[in-house]
Amino acid sequence: MMRVLLAEDQALVRGALAALLNMESDIEVLDSAADGEAAWRALQRLKPDLLVTDIEMPGMTGLELAQRIQRHALPVKVVIVTTFARPGFLRRALDAGVSGYLLKDAPAEKLAESLRVVHRGGRAIDPELAIEAWSEADPLSDRERQALRLAGEGLSAGDIAARMNLSHGTVRNYLSEAIGKLGVGNRIEAYRLARQKGWL
């Protein structure tokens, strides 16, 4: 029996995924969480075999959650189910040790089968997306990515500095580096391009 935890911020999707997976005789959905922090707490409490998570969630994204799982060496396999077919997301997911990456428009039966493959120690990743993911490398560092994401939320350099516990000048440097690497004119264009590529 595969013991699964779900992390998905949209209640309707979360409920549908739980219902779908509970119909399988070899899958038990232990619990579900609406954001990354709640999922992290549930992971430690329930110790599931598999985490099925979305990418975009409030507080902590599914990618950040996978990175935290990897850092703490938790014995849980991560499968991302998302609407985002962005190669940058897949590349970062693979770097974070994710075992499965599926799109929400995949057939329902594919999800259960993919979970079985991952549970057995395999990988379940869309092959076309995998090829595309390695065609263009993410040029941003983690700090540049974090500063750019906050800038895209409308925070000033001073606010970003306070949030990241850095000096104002350091944040300006991170943003300038990101703008230069992406070859755009300002931080908003940099944010848009990085999001479109799946690098944020």
UniProtKB/TrEMBL annotation:
The modification 4-aspartylphosphate is found at residue 54. GO terms for biological process: phosphorelay signal transduction system; regulation of DNA-templated transcription. It holds the Pfam family Response_reg. Keywords: DNA-binding, Phosphoprotein. Residues 133-198 form the HTH luxR-type domain. Residues 3-119 form the Response regulatory domain. PANTHER family: TRANSCRIPTIONAL REGULATORY PROTEIN DESR, TWO-COMPONENT RESPONSE REGULATOR. This is Transcriptional regulator. It comes from Oleiagrimonas soli.
